[in-house]
Amino acid sequence: MMWDAVGHVTTGLTLVAFMVTAGLTAYRVHLKSRIKLIEAVPPSERGGVLEKQLNAFGVEAKNLTKAQQYQIAVRELNLRSRKLLALTFVVALIAIILGLISLNAILQGDGASKRLSEYRGELTKINADIETKRNSIVGQERYRERVVRALEVYEGSIGKEGIQDHWRQNIASADRNISQFEREISDLNIRRWQVEALISKYEQCIMDKKC
Question: Left (φ > 0), alpha (ψ -120 to 50) or beta: where does 41 sit?
């Protein structure tokens, strides 16, 4: 499904973004530790540490006083730390957005499969209901035939009017039941066509990876 593909891609990108965020945070902590290290060294002994740090930044330290070296080193470390903090926030925000997209993609994909399963279940029930009502119609028709044959035997017989009226009522009741079952089957067929169309739609959508 399309949403499954989106979910896989964004999940991978989210993981990369979080890894980058962790890396940036670790490096910023490292820069902060360098500042603390420089500050912990007595001023008289900072020369080698400052020179090494400034060389790492591409700054020529030989012509600078120790005070200038200290100021430049601390300033550069703080500047880079602030830039890393801003970059960390941006990458973290991207990671959160990608995570939300991934979650939505997963939910969308699961939703399509769930709806397809529900429609298939509904179609099975509709077919079972139609079969039950068809069997009921057959039963009512057979009962009606038996009553009609019995009525024909007593048709016109004197003293059997009550029985004849009772059987005529039974025939009318069977006719009503048959008509009711036929209407219900017609309604079920309409719903079945609708559900079959929905099933076909979702199957094609899933097959084409568009939902």
Answer: beta
